Amino acid sequence: MNTLQVGDTAPAFTLPDQDDNPVSLNDYIGSNGKQVLVYFYPKAMTPGCTVQAQGLRDTKQQLNDLNTVVFGISPDEPKRLAKFCQRDELNFTLLSDVDHKVADDFGVWGLKKFMGKEYDGIHRLSFLIGLDGKISHVFNKFKTKDHHQVVLDVLNELTK
Question: Where are the domains of the chain?
């Protein structure tokens, strides 16, 4: 697993969203004046992923005020993402990376261990992509329940 670092150019991608519409990273960076928070999570509607998504949902206005758009990426099918959005009233875009190519490109797909078993999966990491398309921050130390606050703290620090 070769995870992207601060200063690396974010890989361009186009993925289907929860409504099965294509979403391209390049449409959001650059001239529109928005930063992009790309957060990778293992599976929609699981306890940790739900808490993480709800935190981002509840701070959407603050993220908007800091010119930041949010994309959650998992290997789930769009149908499951749509259920997740509806069930938890999510107000940001979820993207389907079924073949985990984008997760590979960001370096978040790799060997994991859970209850003594090893398997390949998504490592829970988030990336802040600046207006220039480069990674400006990597979030790799957080709990799902405070992920949103860690993101807001960094965004507020960057705007000082």
Answer: 14-142
**Cα 19 from chain centroid?**
17
Superfamily of domain 14-142: Glutaredoxin (3.40.30.10)
How confident is the model over 94-125, as pLDDT tens digits?
Answer: 999 999 999 999 999 988 887 888 888 899 99
pLDDT band at 1 (very low <50, low <70, confident <90, very high): low
**pTM attached to this predicted model:** 0.94
* 49 in active site: yes
Q: How many helices and strands, by DSSP H and E, does the chain display?
A: 5, 9
- Selected catalytic residue, list 15, 29, 49, 73: 49
* Spatial CB neighbours of 79, under 8 Å, sequence gap ≥ 6: none
